[in-house]
Amino acid sequence: MIIGVPKEMKDHEYRVSVTPDGVRALRQAGHEVWIERSAGVGSGYSDDAYRSAGAITAESKEQLFQQATLIVKVKEPLLSECRLFRAGQTLFTYLHLASLPDLTKALLDTRITAIAYETIEAKDGTLPMLKPMSEIAGRMSVQIGAHYLEKRHGGRGVLLAGVPGVEPGMVVVLGAGVVGSAATRIAVGMGAHVTVINLDLERLRVLDELYRGRIVTRVSSQAAIDETVMAADLVIGAVLVPGARAPKLVSRELVARMKPGAVVVDVAVDQGGCFETTKPTTHSDPVYMVDDVLHYGVSNMPGIVPRTSTVALTNATLPYLLRLASQGLEEAVRADPGLAKGVTLSSGKITCQAVADAHGLRFDPLM
User: Fold this and answer.
1) Do the domains spanning 2-120+305-359 and 131-303 agree at the CATH topology level?
2) Contact predicate 108/345, CB 8 Å
3) Fold observed for domain 131-303
4) 153 is an active site residue
5) Out of 233, 266, 270, 336, which one is annotated catalytic?
6) Mean pLDDT for each consecutive 10-residue tract of the chain (367 residues)?
7) Whole-model pTM?
8) Looking at 31, 96, 193, 295, which residue is catalytic?
9) Topology (CATH) of 2-120+305-359
10) Is 96 noted as a catalytic residue in this protein?
11) For the chain, how are helix, strand and coil distributed in percent, rounded to 5?
12) What are the residue boundaries of the structural domains of the chain, listed by start?
């Protein structure tokens, strides 16, 4: 199979979908790999490193798309890239289409097969390709929040760790999944006062046992959310419903009652965000104010730590990529029901229930 690795175009997106070691593994399995010129430079991988691994360098994005049968990316394509697809190609990437109606329509029109990393399931029901980026985004969320709490950025001027005689900052984490657990780890390490809110009591028990009284856990209810969010210096949105839009846990009215200069980092922005006031931002212009509350809504947070992110991503995706390339799409999906759950679009049809529901469009089961 001919595999194409384009350069990412999203703002300050420095990741690349396959490392040179990944290319070497694909070549050893008998596949041809094309990579767009300078696609790996942001992650520290030169064109020479890819050529040494056996890749062919494409001089343009157009040439790469013409050659490849399987396009492997990190983030969803921009609308300007959709014109490059042709019917019958396969796209393998993070998609998050539930919050992107225009992109959903554009990709449907191309009649490609689009496989979303974020909804592929392992045999134990976990999301193996969402997990590494969720871990990174969760860990980054607290350090980013601490940065924007500084007064010079419009924050409250609070040091999360506090100092002797001064209480630490209060961090509220909405969600106790991979993102929420990673955020909790960093917030506790920084010395903040941490409250974690989650629907699943068992997840809260795990965290309570892990931190042995160093955090407060609360079962999700509107009263618990209202009380803790109003008291918080930093709130991390870490809610996930696989493939679907995130539930709006924090209303505009509640944001207006938060402390002036408090900071919101909504990691769920890819799926529409769990704050009513969330909107997607970029690394070039990452924050905005709503009712004196600073909001950070960058949808590709791990893109600015690309060396870590690219290696972590390839570790997770390469086994699936090898199977797709070696077995072909139909056989690979038939053999692995978890991989089949990642197939979001197929030949002009929506094959993911959550995406169809998000846009009020017809759902056509894959099998």
Assistant:
1) yes
2) yes
3) Rossmann fold (3.40.50)
4) no
5) 270
6) 97 97 98 98 98 97 97 96 96 95 97 96 93 96 98 97 97 97 98 97 96 96 97 96 89 98 96 96 97 97 96 96 96 95 96 94 90
7) 0.92
8) 96
9) Rossmann fold (3.40.50)
10) yes
11) 40, 20, 40
12) 2-120+305-359, 131-303
